[in-house]
Each structure stands twice: as structure tokens, then as C-alpha cells.
Design goal:
The protein has helices spanning about 10-15, 55-75, 130-145, 155-165, 195-205, 225-250, 260-270, 275-295; strands at about 85, 95, 115, 120-125, 150-155, 185, 210-215, 220-225. By secondary structure, the protein is of the alpha+beta class. The protein has an eight-stranded mixed β-sheet, with helices on both faces. A hairpin with a 7-residue loop joins strand 1 and strand 2. The two termini are about 40 Å apart.
Length: about 300
């Protein structure tokens, strides 16, 4: 049952419409005036603000460590593959990343390593090994996109399966609306990304979008917060899963999945696809992780 704040009675709806008959019109559908749409989404809360950049750094490192624990929990790890980076708030030309070879599910804030613009490890935990592919991809993205605080890439099963098809997602459900006209297909695979040029090519292909499908490789998401980048990755992988299932089910009948209309998708995007929505949507997952680990990742 919907919470009270998200419901409206037929009596109230009739009053809004100026008649006594119940209305079948959806109160949030495109085309309704502000007066008619009496039930509105609440304003999203946001991440904490800091005056002290060093305190902000410690807080964000904790969020990044939590992000790795979440990736481990949801099975987004694959051996030593995968990386999530955080732009350092003190020195924005550097970023923090996971040490190469340390399990996502064990990472703590004190394990993270800081990388400069030359790919050198300048600070961090006891395991000072850097995944070269992580540097090549993420350094290019952080340089090209000053708005990106966090970038996430890993070889999730549904993401890499869908990426083998060489196509973008169709907007076939409400969740996919968050990526409507906001993801790209990188149509190239040259093995492990060890060359600076390919990192820059991926960043150029990403442009100002929040997500990329790397052909024959996996998913890449970015965000203005750690939480948003993580949620976009989780949601994108599920959208890939849903697309694979829908295509298979429809294809068996010689049909195609029904696609959400462009107007409706853009309207929905304004609620589900914004940076604020990404942060807020991730909050429950981060809260659960903190409860389950008793904050162990913060050490």
C-alpha cells in the first residue's frame, strides 16, 4: 500500500477536476497543469556539505569504501577486475581508487590509494598496487568531466552480456527512463585498456552522459556523488537484465518489447534520472550496508 503522502482519494480527485465523477487520469502524466497535479514528489534531501575539505575527504573515502562493499555484495566483482574512483576534494587533480588485488568485500577506507595525474601512487593503504586500466579509463574521465566526482566500472554478468550485442538499451520500463538519452555505446574493444588513447576515446564517447555500454566489455557509470555513480551502475545492470529477459520473451513470439514513448520517458527522467535522484535512490543500500557491517568499512 502506498504511503499516505503518495495517495489521493477519488473524492479529492473529483474536487480537483471540478466534477463529481471519479477521474481515471494519472495525476503525474505529461500534459497536466500544476494545479491539476496536486500530489507532487517531495524535494530530495542531499549529501552533507563541508567547509573543511579534509573532513570532506575522510567522509567521501568512507563512502567509496562502502561502494566497494556494495559491489562485492551484489556480485559485481570478477577476480581482480573492476574499479571505482573518487575525485579528491582537496586536490582535484588526483583521485582515490581500490588497491589492485584486494577483494571488494574487504576494502576499508584506509586501504584506498591516491593517484596523481601521472598515474603515480602518492598516498594510501598498505597495498600500493594500481590497476593500469583503472588509471587509463578513470584519469581520462576525471580530466574530461570536472562535474564527475565518482566513476564506476566493473564486469557485471548482465551488463557484460548485454554489451556483447553492440546496441544501446531500449526504454522499456520506468527504471530504464533514468537512462533515456543519457547513455552511450562505445563500439570498440581492443583488449584490456592499457593505452592512454583508448581511455581518452572512452571519455570522449561518454561525453556529458551518465553511463556507457563498453562493447564486449562491461558497464561504466559516473556521478556527481559516489552514491549516484553506484546507483546508476546497479540500476543499469538490472536494466540490461530486464532487456535481455524482455527480448527473449518477446522474440519467442515473434514480437518486440513495447517501448515507452519519448515524451513519457523524458517526463519520467526528470524525476528518476537526475543527480539528486541517483544519490537519494542509493541511500537505502548504503544504510543497509552500514547496518550489516557495523561500519567496519570506515576503519
Amino acid at each position: 500500500m502506498s504511503p499516505p503522502s503518495a495517495t489521493i482519494t477519488e473524492t479529492e480527485r473529483s474536487s480537483v477536476n471540478g466534477n463529481k465523477k471519479p477521474s481515471a487520469a494519472a495525476i503525474h502524466e505529461p500534459g497536466l497543469s500544476e494545479e491539476e497535479a496536486t500530489v507532487k514528489m517531495p524535494k530530495f534531501p542531499g549529501p552533507p556539505k563541508f567547509h573543511d575539505k579534509y573532513k570532506e575527504r575522510e567522509y567521501l573515502k568512507g563512502r567509496l569504501a562502502a561502494a566497494f562493499r556494495i559491489f562485492g555484495k551484489f556480485g559485481f566483482d570478477e577476480g581482480v577486475a573492476g574499479h571505482i574512483t573518487l575525485r579528491d576534494p582537496v586536490d582535484s587533480t588526483t583521485f582515490w581508487v581500490n588497491p589492485f588485488g584486494v577483494a571488494f568485500s574487504l576494502i576499508r577506507a584506509s586501504d584506498l590509494i591516491q593517484i596523481d595525474h601521472k598515474g603515480q601512487i602518492i598516498a594510501g593503504g598498505p597495498v600500493r598496487l594500481l590497476n593500469s586500466a583503472a588509471y587509463m579509463i578513470h584519469a581520462a574521465i576525471h580530466e574530461a568531466r570536472p562535474d564527475v566526482i565518482c566513476a564506476a566500472h566493473s564486469h557485471s554478468i548482465y551488463g557484460r552480456s548485454f554489451c556483447s550485442l553492440g546496441r544501446k538499451l531500449d526504454t522499456i520500463n520506468q527504471d530504464a527512463c533514468a537512462f533515456h538519452d543519457d547513455h552511450v555505446l562505445y563500439e570498440s574493444f581492443n583488449g584490456i585498456v592499457l593505452a592512454e588513447k583508448e581511455g581518452k576515446d572512452i571519455a570522449a564517447c561518454l561525453g556529458n552522459k551518465k553511463a556507457a555500454l563498453l562493447q564486449n566489455h562491461g558497464l561504466l557509470t559516473v556521478g556527481e556523488t559516489v552514491e549516484a555513480a553506484v546507483f546508476w551502475f546497479m540500476s543499469l545492470d538490472k536494466c540490461c537484465h530486464a532487456q535481455l529477459l524482455a527480448d527473449a520473451a518477446a522474440g519467442g513470439r515473434g514480437e518486440k518489447p513495447i517501448v515507452v514513448g519519448d515524451e513519457e520517458a523524458r517526463f519520467t527522467y526528470k524525476t528518476t534520472g537526475t543527480p539528486q535522484a541517483g544519490w537519494f535512490s542509493a541511500k537505502p543500500t548504503f544504510d543497509v550496508l552500514h547496518k550489516e557491517t557495523n561500519g567496519d568499512y570506515l576503519n
